[in-house]
Amino acid sequence: MQSTLYYKKYCLPCNTSYLKQQLPKTASRELGIHEQVADFVKLRNKLLDDNEFSCRRCIEFSDHLRLTRHLQVLRQKRDELSYQTSAQALLLSEDYGNCLKVLRELNFIDKDNLITIKGRVAAQINEDTLLLTELIFENKLQQRGCSEIAAMLCPLTAQHNATKDKSNERDCYISTTVANGDVINTLKAEVANMANRIDSIERRYGVSDARRGQDPTFGLMEAVYQWAEGMSFEQITHLTDAHEGIIVRCIQRLNEVLKDIRNAGRIIGDNTLVQKMIDTSAAIRRDIVFAASLYTTEEE
Question: What residues does the ATP-dependent RNA helicase Ski2/MTR4 C-terminal domain cover (predicted)?
């Protein structure tokens, strides 16, 4: 730190009279400071020698020196910002450490911060990674039918609430028109309870809200359930007050989630899970929602 102050005081100022001042002696025990000060002295002596540093004869020397100093300051700021956004700085941040504690608690990494099989599965998930991975490893999907799987996962891709009071979203009861209300609300409870558990762990370790996943929304569960059952798109639009585009986007994103889970199932060797995802994808990939003339979707 002291060596930096010496540099700024005696080597950077634009007024060249500073070059003729004597550097005060220092009793600092900072490692390497004496060698650095000696280097600064040699540099100063070169600056004082017109033969060594002929540009001092330039009539705009002071202006050029000022610009050079300003450029150096900007470069230092750039380097500092680059470091602050680097992986090394991230490792030292408190929020990052808190996230590691959450991953360790959920067994995504071990005590040495090495990725576990659960962590490898999570790496395949692009939508609400923690929640979806927990549902997989808690066997919440393997015993469900295609319509139930579609309804259970759609809260991760939907953008429509089941209630106007967002704070009550996870606790509200979903009233259904066609589907069995008990089935829909049982599926909802599975997702809500898992989300609450993860939130509790994140709060315990002080993870900031900005790092948490998107809150699941349950407003399209019945519509997606009936879509997977074979109901027409026109019919499911009467099961919700959501706009048609929101329904379409939810189902399209749901298909991407199913692909992620299928890939995860292959990693852990769960053929039942893989086949469930293939069958569920086949059940929802139809009609206007995936019509190429209206909507662009990624090929298998």
Answer: 110-296
**Euclidean distance between the first and final Cα of the chain, in Å?**
57
- 48, 20 in Cβ contact below 8 A? yes
Q: Residue 273: which of 285, 284, 264, 283 has the closest Cα?
A: 264
Fold of 93-290: Sec63 N-terminal domain-like fold (1.10.3380)
Q: How confident is the model at residue 161 (pLDDT cuts 50, 70, 90)?
A: confident
pLDDT at 207 over 90: no
| Mean pLDDT along residues 49-67 | 80
- H-assigned helices in the chain: 2-10, 33-48, 61-84, 87-92, 94-105, 117-122, 129-137, 146-153, 181-204, 221-229, 233-236, 244-268, 271-284
